[in-house]
Q: What sequence folds into this?
């Protein structure tokens, strides 16, 4: 029972109380408790109820509820509210632009309690006429409904990872004499998973005995394919094959339709002992599963190997991380100690800038204090080094959150958009271009502001942004948070063509999120990003030299 699980229950409780029109003061106190719980550096499950109640912004009432969650795994008052809330109203919480107060209006005043009713009301222009909504809100609701609908039944890679690997382990234990291999989207390292797939030499009946039960049902079956489904989860496909056809089946099931169509004629029917042999027989170097997306990679494989693609263990520095100076959980000292222990060479601390008041963004005075603190830590931890950075907000007019004098005090500056994300392309481009052209911008953070499966992100002209970054010596971040993965890997090839350096950064707010670099690496591999073109793979010495060269190029 970690703090995030507890915080999520408090956050949901606060929202449902607002949706039901209950005591707003209590709802705010639970929302405040959720924020405090998420940021608390110790596991609440390890503390006594009395200790929890004394934590700032939690108090006695919320403290007792924390204890209830820890002891029972649930919160009775929350369960009761969920049962009193129509399913469609709960689904409205995923619709962009609809906060609890607006959902309350839709449900209690307009009698709308399903997504279908909400869509109809928007089409009929009834929502725009309601006070507090308007035509723009109505249009955004329709757009968001379509986005949510198109992503129904899809999951983030991270969210299915543990289940997939656990099932693989179980299958290997049950069928030690057979070969059962993960394939499909998961093997291809897709950021969004719509189904889980295996290739297996085990018999269909044997698999059914192990997997099928009251919770797992058979959707369809024939001699080559068994499709199962667990309640409220992804379909599970088992491609049934023989040992002499296993590797060919693996290739066929671990690639996109475009790739399969292009390579189908090259695949031999003769028995090969490995996927490498099959590619070699086709006159190609081995194409890893993560690159089996586009047909163009096949032409490259005639002369190119992919041995230099970035790996997680090649990352030497943690760039873009937040401490408890802003909205992170741990001290910079604790973060440095963790990185030293795990073999990293440097940390780029990038707390939020002052415009991000919701995230305790740093004032100019706080920046000076933090820099003095970092100077002391660098003496203590040498040769490990902490670099002074900031995640500086890009304001509405394209300027940055601090003047150049303050920006010049940082070793490097990451610029990102965090506010007023609901923009047309012209507005988004103006803001991004303004930041890119600022001589103090070192790295452009999470380019589109998207949240995978939750928020589409503002529209931009990717080629124009990449061209501008090339011209202004700006690195483009691959935000490794599994919820962002922004810049999208599909633009990596173009960025490399233009000579732009990329950087896999975790955007970590806790020590546990340091591991997010893995998810950034998985998608970076899909774009065939070489280790040499990933900034966070630079050694400490290389990174310091690069910083000096970049400052000279920018005339600073």
A:
């Amino acid at each position: 029972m970690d703090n995030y699980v507890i915080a999520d229950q408090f956050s949901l409780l606060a929202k449902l109380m607002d949706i039901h029109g209950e005591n707003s003061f209590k709802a705010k106190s639970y929302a405040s408790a959720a924020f405090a719980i998420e940021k608390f550096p110790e596991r609440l499950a390890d503390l006594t109820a009395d200790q929890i109640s004394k934590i700032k912004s939690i108090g006695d009432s919320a403290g007792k509820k924390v204890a209830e969650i820890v002891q029972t795994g649930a919160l009775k008052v929350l369960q009761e509210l969920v049962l009193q809330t129509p399913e469609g109203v709960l689904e409205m919480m995923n619709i962009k632009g609809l906060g609890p107060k607006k959902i309350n209006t839709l449900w209690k005043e307009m009698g709308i309690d399903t997504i279908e009713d909400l869509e109809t009301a928007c089409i009929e222009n009834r929502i725009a006429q309601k006070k507090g909504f308007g035509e723009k809100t109505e249009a955004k609701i329709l757009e968001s409904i379509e986005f949510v609908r198109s992503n129904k039944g899809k999951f983030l890679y991270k969210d299915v990872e543990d289940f997939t690997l656990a099932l693989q382990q179980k299958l290997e234990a049950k069928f030690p004499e057979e070969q059962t291999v993960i394939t499909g989207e998961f093997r291809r390292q897709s950021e969004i998973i719509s189904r889980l797939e295996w290739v297996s030499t085990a018999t269909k009946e044997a698999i059914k005995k192990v997997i099928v039960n009251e919770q797992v049902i058979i959707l369809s079956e024939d001699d080559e394919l068994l499709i199962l489904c667990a309640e409220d989860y992804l379909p599970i496909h088992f491609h049934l094959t023989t040992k002499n056809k296993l590797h060919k089946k693996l290739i066929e099931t671990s690639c996109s339709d475009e790739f399969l169509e292009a390579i189908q004629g090259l695949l031999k029917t003769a028995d090969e002992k490995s996927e490498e042999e099959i590619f070699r027989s086709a006159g190609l170097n081995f194409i890893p599963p993560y690159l089996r997306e586009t047909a163009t990679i096949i032409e490259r494989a005639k002369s190119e190997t992919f041995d230099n693609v970035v790996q997680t263990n090649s990352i030497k520095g943690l760039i873009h991380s937040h401490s408890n100076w802003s909205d992170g959980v741990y001290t910079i000292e604790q973060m440095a100690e963790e990185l030293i222990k795990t073999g990293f060479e440097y940390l780029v601390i990038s707390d939020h800038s002052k415009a991000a008041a919701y995230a305790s963004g740093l004032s100019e005075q706080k920046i000076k204090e933090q820099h003095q603190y970092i100077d002391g830590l660098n003496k203590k931890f040498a040769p490990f080094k902490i670099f002074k950075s900031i995640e500086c907000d890009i304001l509405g007019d394209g300027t940055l959150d601090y003047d150049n004098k303050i920006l010049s005090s940082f070793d490097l500056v990451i610029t990102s958009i965090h506010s007023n994300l609901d923009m047309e392309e012209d507005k988004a481009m103006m803001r991004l271009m303004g930041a890119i052209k600022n001589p103090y911008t070192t790295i452009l953070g999470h380019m589109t502001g998207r949240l995978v499966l939750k928020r589409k992100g503002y529209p931009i002209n990717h080629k124009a942004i990449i061209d501008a970054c090339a011209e202004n010596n700006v690195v483009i971040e691959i935000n490794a948070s599994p919820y962002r993965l922004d810049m999208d890997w599909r633009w990596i090839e173009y960025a490399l063509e233009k000579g732009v350096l990329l950087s896999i950064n975790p955007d970590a707010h806790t020590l546990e999120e340091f591991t997010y670099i893995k998810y950034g690496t998985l998608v970076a591999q899909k774009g065939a990003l070489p280790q040499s073109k990933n900034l966070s793979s630079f050694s400490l010495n290389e990174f310091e030299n690069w910083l000096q060269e970049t400052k000279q190029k920018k005339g600073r």
The first strand starts at residue 155 and ends at 156. Residues 157-174 form the longest helix (18 residues). Residues 58 and 168 are 41 Å apart (CA to CA).
